[in-house]
Amino acid sequence: MRRLVFVLGLLALAVRVTAAADAPRMPKPTRISYYYDAFDKSLVRPITRTTDLALGARKLVHNHREAANVDDSDQVRLPSTWWQPRLGYRPLTPQQMVIGPGPGTGPLRDRKWRVTGVKNQGVSLGLRIKDSSGQTFQLKFDTPQWAEMSTGADVVVSHLIWAAGYNAPDNAIVNLTVNDLELAQGATYQDILGHTRPITMEVVKGILAKTPPNADGTYRAVASRFLKGKPLGEWEYSGRRGDDPEDLIPHQHRREIRGFYSIAAWVNHTDGSARNTLDMWVDDGGRSFVRHYLIDFSGCLGSGSVNRQLYSAGDEYFADFGTMLTSVATLGLHRFSWEYTRDPHLPSVGFFEASQFHPRDWRPFLPNPAYDEDTERDRRWGARIVAGFSDEHIRAAVALGRYSDPRAEAYIVQTLIARRDKIVSEILPERSTTAAAP
Amino acid sequence: MRAGTWRQVQWALCALIMGVVTSAPLALADAPDSLARSTPARGDSTPAVAGPDTTGMADLAASTAPPWVPAHAVPARAGWETAVQLPMRIVSLPLTELGLIAKRTMVSVEDANWIPRVAYLITAAPRVGVFVTPASLGDRTGFGFGITVVPPGIRNYLSADWNGSTLDYNRTRVTARYGVARVDYIYEWRPQDRFYGLGPASSNADTTTYAAQSQQVRLGLDWRWQVPRRSWRTELAAWFGPRQMITRSGRESAHPSIEERFPVFQPIMNQRYEHLVYGARAMFDARRGVPRWSHGGRLAVEYERFDNPLGFLALGNSDVPFTFQRLTTDAEVGFSFWRDPRTIRLAVRVVDNHPDASGIILPADLASLGGSRGLNGFEPGRFHGADLALGRVMYLFPLATRFELDIHAEVGNVYGDVWRDAKLNGLRHSYGVALRPRADTFLLGAIGVEWSVDTVRLRYSIGGVE
User: Fold this and answer.
1) Strand, coil or helix: what is B118?
2) For the ranges A87-101, A141-155, B17-31, B146-160, which has the lowest average pLDDT?
3) Which of A57, A84, A192 comes nearest B62 by C-beta?
4) Mutual angle of helices A149-163 and A260-267, in 10-degree steps
5) Please, where are the H alpha helices in A33-125?
6) How far is B131 from chain A, CA to nearest CA, in Å?
7) What predicted TM-score, i.e. pTM, was given to this entire model?
8) Looking at chain A, which terminus has fewer C-beta neighbours within 10 angstroms, N or C?
9) Average pLDDT over residues B284-304
10) Chain B residue closest to A32 (CA)?
11) Start-end of H helices in A211-259
12) Residues B149-176: tens digit of each pLDDT
């Protein structure tokens, strides 16, 4: 009997050892510095690109490097952990888009939500909660001056981005009062000075007091479902994650990342830097791997997250040397296109418009290494996805923003439609209609 | 080895082999359906999506299948690109290393939450009542900082500040307020201000320095009016109080002291002069615009008399051999065009000092030009005289959303009597250009160059540009 137990034990150990040797190892979590990233993208990168002889030579002879992960039909090689063919490639109904990464309903409301974490410093405030199923959500709020703006943008764009094929979190608008919340046992938070403090209802009420209330006294938030898996930190728009065996193509040479330019331009995703990306180590479909997400769309459409977008957002980089050179050469007498724009003066919209939107000249806040490398084929790939969005898709997505002002909803729908049409007419001129099958 | 032990080893080996064999089917059993159906080979060029798929949400979900990957890692640059860029990479290697160090440092700084912490401490300053700011001691005073203390609870009534710099300049001010009334005590030590001679014909060859030490008590009244929803405001102020001033030898070793090159100042050196200073100021300010004013104008007139001190108000020695009065007029106007305003500004400043019959005015009380007082392209204090006239034209235009450029020209000079001596053909000229980073509602600073026939000066400031 002892011998049998011994043998069975060894057998189990052997199975474990063999399986562990085969299992992929989780890559090391990484961290980037947002400030260094801004410095690098704004100053170092423009200088190195300007002095890059090879790049100059490529430009001179119009021999740009094409994406490395496309097939003979110029399509992304699949499967991919970055992108999944959806609109523009497969039929996807507005109803399916509304479900998105699913289920799109926010936290369960059968019991009070347990507050497990808070962010009560700085300008963007939030609560971390668990619903009765144990699912964790991050609740993010608007700033008082721009009620509904950033929460609306976050929800609307997350569904559009998911429908475009990218991995995005499940976001939904929720309304709550302090009575919907209870404190999790022993929940603590770190204050700005690094001291660990217990979360009290006063802390929670303090956060709610800083957010704009709805007309009925409730507070509006975007509930962002925590992604499955273990976070590995941001992925960057250039380079590779060296310890991920499935990440063998420099990100700036991936079609789905280069081609994201057309989609980002459409939804005015100006803050599309690494800070709004996330790699997750997931156990899904019987294997462990890195899935690449785009997160936090509160800086899209007319929202600059805590403030409205600048009038020049989408027109110039934070430090735009080309624009500066033009200004110096003309002594400031060159008038930029954003100076002709009209502000809709709708607080829940912020600043977002289509009349001066030029799809080929759109620029994010910081230069993006993948967009810098993109070619006409990459832009057309992304434009084809944008063209896949019908007016019904756009209306359905914007309705998810649950704007209290119908003018805001109508304005965003109208602007997204107009921007989509501009992208199609300028980048896919041969397409006479939008939302057509490829 | 005993036979029993050997048998156990045999069993163990057998079990290990069996484990390896049985684990393979188990692993396959865990594999996703997609993998079981078709596992794309590395480098396989067949697109996985052949046509429209109208099935439900499951097909729209993120794929769990192993992704297509090339046979080998794709290099970021082609071979010839790397070769072409090699010399530049070698040259820039030190910068790359610096960048990596900066990157790691910033990650540590952000991980430790230092940036929000510092921001928090700055925003908490009003509650604590202590502010640290760059020094405001004027040009050529070295690097420095200022500390302002506004005690919580009595912040509307009492404040104190101290500014000091690496060149030993310092100033202390304590202010008590009640309603429109205020009392100030000010002590200032300026060890190496420059003096080049009196009048418009002064020369760089005559560079000297002097030190000025002063203390002053000032009782004043301040009225400010602003009509609600109007952009203009009016200010009236009046003050009086004793002031002591001592002129001492300059502390800058590279240049002689003022009395060595200009013996006319010998009698006043190290003498404690006290005046009763009283004056009034009226200002109408209709400037408006953010992040810097772009429309409107400002007119300010100030009269100040430096008179014999009153015995009961004197700080010390009440013997004064001279008195004088000063009239200062400032006017500026600006207008702009387009959404991100391109602004043109015009400014005029006239200072008119009237000494008594003795004709004495201390060097520190003379009207002066050069540096930030006007004619920026000249060294601070380059021109001293009883009076001055200064004109300035400035054109400000945006370079990009966060930067603007300031191009300006100044003309002016010092005179014995500005109304009698000022002539267009005797004006000095100075030119400048400055890059100014800006936030939504204020200017962050400025950096630029100023030039004149004398010299070229680099100019910078952190905050407090306008």
Assistant:
1) helix
2) B17-31
3) A84
4) 150
5) 34-39, 45-50, 53-60, 94-99
6) 19
7) 0.83
8) N
9) 95
10) B107
11) 255-258
12) 999 888 889 999 999 999 999 999 999 9
A41 touches chain B (CB under 8 A): no
Within 8 A of B31 by CB-CB distance, chain A residues are 286-287
Tokens for B443, please give them.
């200017």
Residue B37 has pLDDT above 60, yes or no: no
Locate tokens 């630029």: which residue?
A: B448
CA distance A182 to chain B (A): 28
At B50-103, the pLDDT tens digits run 333 345 777 899 999 999 999 999 999 999 999 998 888 888 888 888 888 999
In terms of Cα–Cα distance, which of A386, A101, A347 is closest to A224? A101
Strands, E assignment, B35-180: 130-134, 144-149, 158-165, 170-178
| Interface predicted TM-score of the whole assembly (ipTM), two decimals | 0.88
User: Which of A287, A333, A373 to substitute to test the interface with B, most B CBs within 10 Å?
Assistant: A287
| A149's tokens | 């703006």
Cα angle B112, A299, A107; round to 5: 80
Residues 178-217 of A with CB under 8 A from B: 192-194
Q: Average pLDDT over chain B, rounded to whole? A: 86
Residues 285-324 in A contacting B (C-alpha not used; CB under 8 Å): 285-287, 289, 291, 307, 310-312, 316-320, 323-324
Shortest distance between the Cα of B81 and any Cα of chain A, in A, equals 5
Pairing of strands B342-355, B367-369: unpaired
Q: How confident is the model at residue A15 (pLDDT cuts 50, 70, 90)?
A: low
Strands A181-183 and A113-119, how do they pair? parallel
Q: Does A283 reach chain B within 8 Å, measured CB to CB?
A: no
Closest-CA residue to B102 (of A366, A273, A36, A34): A36
Rounded Cα distance between B285 and B331, Å, is: 10
